[in-house]
Amino acid sequence: MLLAQISDTHILAQGRLLFGTLDSAEHLERTVAHLNRVEPDYVLVTGDIADDGAVASYRNFERILSRLKAPYLLLAGNHDSRDNMREVFGDRLPGENAGPFIQGTVEDLSLRLVSLDTVQPGSDAGLVCQARLDWLDRVLSQEPQRPTVVAMHHPPFATGIEESDAIMCANGPALAAVIARHPQVVRIACGHIHRPIAVQWAGRTASVAPSTAHQVELGLGDGKPMSWLLEPPGYHLHVWYGGADLITHVNYTGDYGPATKFD
After folding, report:
1. Which of helix, strand or coil describes residue 176?
2. What is the pTM of this model?
3. Distance (Å, whole) CA 144 – CA 181
4. How many whole angstroms separate alpha carbon 244 and alpha carbon 116?
5. Is 191 left (phi over 0), alpha (psi -120 to 50) or beta?
6. DSSP letter for each residue of 78-136
7. Residue 89, CA distances (Å) to 44, 80, 116 in order
8. Which conformational region is residue 221 in: left (phi greater than 0), alpha (psi within -120 to 50 degrees), or beta?
9. What is the spatial distance between Cα 206 and Cα 155, in angstroms, rounded to a whole number?
């Protein structure tokens, strides 16, 4: 099974540029074309779909994703509006989104997908409150034998990029305690940081996918300001053969010329 993960697309309404200079829609169009060549079985979109949470931005995203051959699952991020996502995407959102959160499960794949809402309206930081912890524990308890990916926007672990870590998912230790009770969880797949990152967390592998739009500079150390730059856009391609291992590749979507065979 091939599970693609795109993240932090930061789409605006048609004709608008991110930061006045970056065509995030064109980057996403290129990503969709790349995915159609790779032919994944499913695509996770781990939040920050729109940069401004506006209906027009979601309509633009919807227009671009209509060309994607694979089915996809949408998660909300801190730049997103749950209400406007519901207006545009309706019943295409996860099944349990009637309450305050947009979260649910995908049951018809060889890997079970559980999407967990980490949004705090009015804040760039994430949170998994007690209600969401209880929901996750209950959902994971329903299928204890099925290998599962838990997808969320905000990572619940520090990355060393200080300004990003200040807006990570709060209540990480409580979330780790829930994950630890469910050994079928093979991956925690996150977005938000705009860099490819992997860490051993709560006894599992957790990962962060790069952005399809722009990346965050790898600035480690005290007081390093967070900056964006035009490193290559990319996405994660998770490969599942069964067993206990989920293999993850970073795929870049720029034009780097044709591949050349080794002699």
Report:
1. helix
2. 0.95
3. 10
4. 22
5. beta
6. TT--HHHHHHHHGGGS-TT-SSS---EEE-SSSSEEEEE--B-TT-SSEE--HHHHHHH
7. 15, 13, 18
8. left
9. 8
Give me the pLDDT at residue 99, please: 73
Q: Which amino acid is at 47?
A: G
Secondary structure class of 72 (helix, strand, coil) = strand
User: What distance in Å separates the CA atoms of residue 248 and residue 263, rounded to the nearest whole number?
Assistant: 27
Give the model confidence (pLDDT) of 165-189 as tens digits: 899 999 999 999 999 999 999 999 9
Amino acid, single-letter form, for residue 121:
P
- Specify which residues 199 forms β-bridges with: 206
Secondary structure letter of residue 150 according to DSSP: E
Mean pLDDT, the chain, rounded, equals 94
Q: Is residue 259 part of a domain?
A: no
pLDDT exceeds 90 at position 97: no
Give the residue among 77, 82, 139, 85 at the shortest CA–CA distance from 113.
139
Is residue 42 within 8 A of residue 14, CB to CB? The reply is no
Say if residue 260's pLDDT is above 70.
Answer: yes
Q: What is the DSSP string of 184-249?
A: TEEEEEE-SSSS-EEEEETTEEEEEPPPSS-EE----STTPPP-EE-PPPEEEEEEE-STT-EEEE
CATH number at residue 8: 3.60.21.10
Domain membership flag for residue 210: yes
Query: Structural domain of residue 62, as residue ranges?
Result: 2-252
Q: Work out how many domains the chain is built from and give that number.
A: 1
Distance CA 57, CA 89 (A): 12
- Residue 200 in domain: yes
The verdict on residue 260 lying in a domain is: no
91 burial level (CB within 10 Å; 0-12, 13-18, 19+): exposed
